[in-house]
Amino acid sequence: MKRKKIFFPPKGESAQHAYHSILEKKIKEINYPFKEFINHQILGSSLLILATIIAVTWASLPEFSASYLNFVKGTFGIHVFEIDYIKPITFWVNDIFLTVFFFFIGLEVKKEFIGGETANYKKVFLIGFSAVGGVLLPLAIFTILNLDSNMLQAWGIVIPTDTAFALGILCLFKKVLPKQAFVFLALLAVFDDLIAIIVIALFYSNSVNLLWLLPAMGTLIVLLFLNYIGYRKFSLYLILGVLLWVFVEQANIHGSIAGILMACLIPSRPEVGPNFFISTMKKVIKKFEIRKEQIPKIIEDPSQFEILMTAKKAVDKTTTPVQKWSRNLDLPVTLVVLPIFALVNSGVNLKQDLSTNVISSTLFISIIVALSIGKPVGITLFGFLALKLKWGVMLNKMNLRLIFFIGIFAGIGFTMSLFITSLSFTQQLNNLAIAKTAILTSTSLSIFAGLLFFMIDNFCRKTIKTFENNKLKKHTVTTELQNN
Fold first, then answer.
1. How far apart are the first and last CA of the chain?
2. What is the pLDDT of residues 267-321, one digit of tens each?
3. According to the CATH classification, is domain 40-205+254-269+332-475 in 1.20.1530.10?
4. Distance of CA 368 to the CA centre of its chain
5. Three-state secondary-structure class, residue 61
6. Is the separation of the CB atoms in 137 and 377 below 8 Å?
7. E strands along 272-332, which residues?
8. Domain spans of the chain, in order of start
9. Residues 193, 201: contact at Cβ < 8 Å?
10. What would the pLDDT profile of 171-213 be if each residue is shown by its tens digit?
11. How far is CA 61 from CA 72, 350, 418, in A?
12. How many other C-beta atoms can be found within 10 angstroms of the C-beta atom of residue 29?
């Protein structure tokens, strides 16, 4: 009897898990909260922080620092058709993984522009103009502080915002912030990253090989044609995406550019409209109800399975490739791509790199001031100008105070800043270590400053509210006494 209770489905169909065994239901009870957790945006920042702590600890401990360097400088390869493709780990992470990341970011941007909260162009302009301020002021600060040094080639470090990290930290305040705050930060970070991508393409790539740009342009034209005719099969887009990446790399432009270009050309139109979906599902439900009455168990009736497959096809046709592929990439990027990038790129030997010379260096100070102060001030200032000049419109439930609060977290450059650091100081290991230390420090300062601003702002608003309530009560009592 125990065997039946554990491994055979219980009777009845009303419950959600009626067809699950007792053991299966217990596992699902454990698994469901975990699924909810990993789908939460805060996990992305948590894993980034964990990977960074591991990298810094690994690189700083005397017993393990050598093994960390060996790990970062190590190679990894694949064997295909008797061909060995072996490359450094930094290549797989900084070239391959980052291309996937930018493809994902590109899909998110496309979704937001076409049908998101910011479909109103004036709202988009406000965020875009704020992002420009969040780029220009940090850039001006970095340039002014480094005019007399040879560090100006690293100016791109202070441009980007780490989308996943910043949004994850902002999620700590999700109960008290409007949804529009997350939309604002997400799109702001995307604008920053797009500017960073252009900067990488123009200033951090070697001399462009125009010969290889021709097949790259040809691939883009084919992708554009496929989009235009409504071709939606993932396999062909994947093959063309790989070819585009190869051509772009051979042209001496960083491969991550291929990811963003590819995302722009993924179809954003569904194959069929909602009316088709509604009519199909009505027929499917009707047929399924008839078959279920005749044969209760799906396993015994191939027709029920075919009916369900028809429903699945209707769902696939009604959704867009942009939505499907973005959703499929969300967890891999959050759980694998970004944490591994942080592990490989954020290893700083604190015992060696946090010396007095490092902390007092112009490069260290300029990165911290530009990201931690320049970002929020620039974003808020340009947002204010856009509103005053009536170029932009504020998102619902947003104000300048919230924009400044969001701007503080926009100072978390982390992933992209580390990436541009590796491009800026390929042969200058000392400056590379200083810049990495500054990025980690500015990230910590931005998080701390955001928390502090929130607490002070919350305290001030509560104090003002209490004062106004007491004043109102006093006025009411005085009025009543005068009337008596």
1. 83
2. 988 888 888 888 888 888 888 887 777 777 776 678 888 888 888 888 888 888 9
3. yes
4. 22
5. coil
6. yes
7. none
8. 1-38, 40-205+254-269+332-475, 270-319
9. no
10. 778 778 887 888 888 788 878 877 887 887 777 766 677 888 8
11. 16, 9, 21
12. 10
How many whole angstroms separate alpha carbon 52 and alpha carbon 114?
A: 35
How far is residue 383 from each of residues 109, 125, 132, 190, 401, measured CA to CA in Å? 20, 9, 9, 16, 11
> What pTM value is reported for the model?
0.71
Q: Which two tokens stand for residue 423?
A: 């491009």
Tokens for 67, please give them: 């093994």
Label residue 162 exposed, middle or buried (CB < 10 Å: 0-12, 13-18, 19+). Answer: buried
Q: What angle do CA 200, 262, 311 make, to 5 degrees?
A: 145
16-20, 77-81, 288-292, 305-309: lowest mean pLDDT where? Answer: 16-20
Q: In sequence order, which residues have a C-beta less than 8 Å from that of residue 345 and are 6 or more positions away? A: 55, 93, 94, 418, 419, 421, 422, 436
Instruction: Count helices and strands (H / E) in the chain.
Output: 23, 2
Could you give the CA distance from residue 365 to residue 360 in angstroms, rounded to a whole number? 7
Residue 222, helix vs strand vs coil: helix
Which run of H or of E encompasses 85?
strand 83-88
Note the residue count of the chain: 484
Handedness of CA 268, 274, 276, 280 (dihedral sign): positive
